[in-house]
Amino acid sequence: FRSTAYFDCNTRRLSQDSVVLAYIVQFIVTCTATLIIEGLVLILFGFNIKQNWKPFLLINVFTQLMFTASVFKVMYTSGVIAALLTYVPFELLILAVEATLFSKYLVQHSKQRRIAYAITANIISFVLGIMAMIRF
């Protein structure tokens, strides 16, 4: 949700950093943070990382790509306010997708525990993400 514009007084030209580069950097930052936060929650729920790393990684990268593409498309076409208004609905969609996929593809523990993990991990990463946006 941040951008920088540059104005060259000599040439009277206005320029901006690449939007694509900004999206890529944003994806890398948010995906990395999500993997760390949700990975810690996975461990706290008693799941073995060695047995679950592949579905954990693939599901989270998939949902982060889906989230980033959706929210930034809205932001690019309709503005920051529209993007902020779609943030929570997209998070809820991701929570449902991850709960479904984790309940199917994580190994160990019951289906209910897998779903509880997905809900808990998403709530924690959502709250921390909101706190980070407010702070920065």
β-strand number:
2
Alpha-beta classification: mainly alpha
Strand content: 5-15%
Terminus-to-terminus distance: 11 Å
Shape: elongated
Rg measurement, Å = 18 Å
Provide an overview of this structure.
This protein is mainly alpha-helical and 136 residues long. It is 79% helix and 6% strand. It has helices spanning 19-44, 49-78, 80-105, 111-135, and strands spanning 5-8, 13-16. A two-stranded antiparallel ribbon has the order 1-2. Helix 1 crosses helix 4 (111-135) and helix 2 (49-78) packs antiparallel against helix 3 (80-105). The longest helix is centred in the middle third of the chain and has 30 residues, at 49-78.
Task: Spell out the blueprint of helices and strands.
Blueprint: E1 5-8, E2 13-16, H1 19-44, H2 49-78, H3 80-105, H4 111-135
Antiparallel strand pairs: 1-2
Helix pairs in contact: 1-2, 1-4, 2-3, 3-4
Compose a concise summary of this entry.
The chain is mainly alpha-helical and about 140 residues long.
Descriptive labels:
6% strand; 79% helix; 2 strands; two-stranded antiparallel ribbon; 136 residues; mainly alpha
